[in-house]
Recover the amino acids of this structure.
């Protein structure tokens, strides 16, 4: 199968099953023998088309006769071609069009045209007349995109910010409206732009096994240059990584000859994690020999960080509703040498949490919209709805409500998300404090002294944004139960 056929197969699978991009791309790499360079192109094409699909459709629709309904297979082929023309510099336009037309011939054959005629034709735009003309149709539309696509103008930002941002940056209208209402135009535009970039690959150093200088030298010897994170104490960022070259599939299934990155990432002195996620354990600031409970722990990014900060002393109870995800946590603990972790499968909204009464600190790293991680998961913008967001807020509040009465007096409670939505963050904390006035907020500054002021809210919460801090959007609040 050619690279573009694999990309098309992935895109069809994503739209048919609504599985996440990473899962679909991973399983395509398991199924097809593809070299590292081609994997990067598949990755770039699939992630790119998913990310830009609304903008691509808007451009394409200028050149398709509106009386014709284009089926999903044709739509994805057109999107693949338009994406290469509008967003990829490395592929000359004639090659992008030629390859897409070849793809159409192979993927569509001379069978059905893939179009349903809606009404009489005669308007501007291309239309397919029969199966054998399909390649001509794809060719014609893409040539128009090449000639005129860049010259199309979006509704002006000043007159119609919702449509301007939603089309030019490729986001659902409801989300853009929501961000405009809560954050304003310049934040929304900057956030949407930054969230369309590929995230750098960051990882946390296992401070029990190595030190920054030693680790950087050892990575350099493997040909990998790193920078020290300016935000997270134990964080390093790869600097010689091409955009879109890394994904979990590449890590787990890299073919012979391309194992450097894979072997590096499976080292016991490294845990791949966004820098924003590395702020949570230092905010909780566990001391040695303490008991810490992590109620939404899997797959263990923060649990393993806590274990390292505790020098593997004391105990962490890592709980999660998903047994499968807890199995991943156990593997991660084993690999990275987190030795003080016990696991429990439980639904933390309903379980009897009496056992947390002895804990010095409790972490609730809540399930959330994930809108802070759009750089890594471009598909979630299309899959989430406003109703789901409300349901998530209820779940987040219920996690806090079920834990709150059991936390000991003087005990610490940290709540975190990888969301930028005030309703999942500040508003949850506000509602929590109203329901449980025996808790107070502790300002994050003393725990994260080198964090820039822009990453702290006036209340003392941590809030990062991709456009301001170059990391995922994330939120964390440190609360303490009063002693009286
Ligand atoms: C954001 S993830 C946690 C990530 C993890 N803390 C880390 O750093 O790797 C949220 C987790 O909450 C779990 N979860 C969802 N609902 C839950 C519930 N009712 N009780 C316990 N865990 C739950 C999910 O299975 C998921 O693993």
């Amino acid at each position: 199968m050619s690279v573009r056929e694999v990309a098309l197969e992935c895109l069809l699978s994503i739209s048919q099953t609504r599985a996440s991009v990473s899962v679909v791309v991973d399983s395509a790499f398991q199924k097809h023998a593809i070299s590292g360079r081609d994997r990067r192109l598949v990755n770039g094409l699939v992630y790119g088309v998913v990310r830009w699909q609304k903008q691509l459709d808007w451009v394409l629709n200028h050149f398709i006769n509106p009386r014709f309904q284009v089926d999903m297979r044709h739509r994805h082929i057109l999107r693949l071609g338009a994406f290469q023309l509008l967003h990829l510099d490395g592929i000359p336009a004639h090659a992008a069009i030629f390859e897409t037309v070849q793809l159409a011939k192979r993927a569509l054959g001379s069978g059905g045209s893939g179009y349903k005629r809606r009404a009489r034709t005669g308007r501007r735009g291309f239309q397919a007349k029969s199966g054998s003309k399909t390649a001509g149709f794809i060719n014609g539309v893409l040539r128009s995109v090449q000639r005129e696509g860049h010259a199309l103008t979006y509704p002006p930002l000043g007159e119609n910010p919702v449509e301007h941002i939603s089309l030019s940056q490729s986001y659902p209208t409801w989300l853009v409206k929501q961000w405009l209402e809560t954050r304003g135009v310049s934040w929304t535009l900057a956030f949407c732009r930054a969230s369309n970039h590929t995230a750098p690959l960051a990882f946390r150093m296992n401070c029990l096994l190595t030190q920054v200088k030693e680790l950087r030298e050892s990575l350099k010897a493997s040909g990998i240059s790193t920078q020290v994170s300016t935000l997270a104490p134990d964080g390093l960022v790869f600097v010689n990584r091409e955009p879109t070259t890394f994904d979990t599939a590449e890590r787990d299934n890299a073919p012979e000859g391309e194992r450097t990155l894979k072997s590096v990432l499976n080292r016991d002195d490294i845990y791949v994690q966004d820098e924003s996620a590395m702020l949570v354990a230092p905010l909780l600031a566990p001391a040695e020999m303490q008991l810490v409970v992590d109620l939404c722990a899997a797959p263990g990014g923060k649990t393993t960080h806590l274990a390292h900060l505790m020098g593997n002393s004391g105990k962490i109870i890592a709980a999660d509703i998903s047994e499968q995800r807890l199995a991943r946590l156990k593997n991660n603990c084993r690999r990275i040498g987190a030795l003080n972790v016990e696991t429990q499968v439980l639904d933390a909204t309903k379980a009897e949490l009496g056992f947390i009464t002895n804990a010095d600190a409790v972490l609730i790293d809540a399930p959330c919209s994930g809108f802070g991680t759009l750089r890594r998961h471009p598909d979630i913008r299309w899959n989430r709805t406003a109703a789901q967001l409300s349901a998530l807020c209820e779940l987040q509040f219920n996690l806090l409500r079920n834990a709150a009465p059991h936390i000991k007096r003087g005990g610490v409670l940290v709540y975190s998300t990888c969301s930028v939505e005030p309703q999942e963050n500040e508003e949850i904390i506000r509602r929590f404090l109203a329901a449980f006035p025996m808790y107070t907020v502790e300002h994050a500054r003393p725990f994260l002294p080198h964090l820039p002021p822009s990453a702290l809210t006036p209340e003392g919460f941590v809030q990062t944004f991709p456009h301001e801090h170059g990391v995922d959007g994330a939120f964390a609040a440190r609360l303490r139960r009063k002693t009286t």
Notes: The mean pLDDT is 90. The domain at 276-481 is CATH 3.40.50.150 (Rossmann fold).
